Amino acid sequence: MVTASHNPSEYAGVKFVLSGAKPMSAHQLATLKTQTARCYATTLHRALMGPQAQPFRDGFVDKLLQITCVRGKSPVSVPLRVVIESGNGMGGVTFAPIAERLQTVFPGIEFIFANEMPDGRFPACRPDPLLPDYLSLLGAKVLDERANLGICFDGDADRAGFVNDQGDPIDSATVSIILFDMLRAGPDVEARKFVFGNLNSSLRFQRHVESRQDEGWEFVMTPVGHGKIKELLRAAPYTTTDGRTSSVLFAAEHSGHYYYPDFYSVDSAMATAILLIRKTRSVLQQGRQLGAALSDLGEAYENSGEISVVVRDNRQAIDRINAVAAEYITNRNKRWRGICEADNGLQEVKRFSNAVPYVPSELAALDLRVESTIEDAEPWWFSVRKSGNEPKLRLIVESSSQGTMKILRDEVLDILQPH
To answer: Is residue 95 domain-shared with residue 124, that is, in the same domain?
Structure first.
């Protein structure tokens, strides 16, 4: 796959995966690079023959409908208008055959496509579901079209963002709760017990899953990043040794990546979109609109969203995160979570008390999540991590009250960007 995702075209690159969509390690990518360079001249004539077309459109849609529990044509017609905002990325092209099929199985559904033609210059807006401008563009279209749901995809259409009938964004915690409730009510979930959420997961999502512990569900916090999550999904105790049976229901990231074990343990914005369409259709059948139906879903928390802080280099990034750790872990005695290397070589999130110091050299990554203790009047957490592709730190703060969230946000920002 040649892609720049949601980034400008000068960042275009190539993604490689192994059989079954298994991610490649850094060593495997380096080996591939060496072997490719070695045999390039001798095999160039084959490349000039051009790609061989392989029909997969119908099979692709069949698989998505299977894992999202869409079974045959509904006998009930439900008027439902859905805006699909592609941002001139791949979302429109990819979702088009899905929309055609859904119109045959969901009577009354109508799709309105916007900016569906791919254009790497992204003339309408940079297609990133985390950007307020992109969600505002989608929200305005939903209001103009009097639609019931809006869906936007990032550049290479592996992430999705959503807005309700009022044009308001549906945050990732709410999407994750919807997915959990829908998937656990589906068929063949007896072997499933784990739900993944990354280091930036909202307490709303985490506590919603934990409230179903009596049903056997367990929330597992993972590192941030698709490669690390895909590896965990394929590892014990989350899958059998032959890789055929998973005990994970799904995995979620705050950025809009949602992973499905039954879809080769990779992320699928298309599957997520189908599930949100099913949810909206169900709400409309009950005589309600989506915004009203989601207003009381899960506990209420105030989230800062992802805030970026520019750093000069890796040394400065370490110094700034160390300063945050010293203030909250050492001085204020708060517990924390970090990324460690497990016995099987994979990265996992571990929880520590304030008695254990934060030492970057002893961890697998710089990522730090600090959490409230029982002495605090309100539950809260914040995370600081280094971006994987930009010279920036990422900060997210969440609390049960807006006042506490803002105080924490400003305190941590003062440490991360001293005057």
So the answer is: yes
Q: Are 316 and 417 in contact (CB under 8 A)?
A: no
Total domain count for the chain?
A: 3
Q: What is the CATH number of the domain that holds 353?
A: 3.30.310.50
What φ, ψ does residue 14 adopt, rounded to 5°? -125, 135
Domain that holds residue 383: 302-416
Assess whether pLDDT exceeds 90 at residue 372: yes
Question: CA angle, 365 as apex, 407 and 225 as ends, to 5°?
Answer: 85
**pLDDT, tens digit, 9 for 90 and up, residues 3-35:** 656 666 676 677 788 877 888 888 898 898 888
Whether 316 and 309 have beta carbons less than 8 Å apart is answered as no
What global pTM score does this model have? 0.91
Same domain (yes/no): 241, 184: yes
Of 28-42, 56-70, 109-123, 296-310, which range is least confident?
28-42
Closest CA to 22 of 193, 191, 226: 226
Distances (CA, A) of 362 to 221, 322, 357, 358, 359: 19, 13, 10, 8, 6
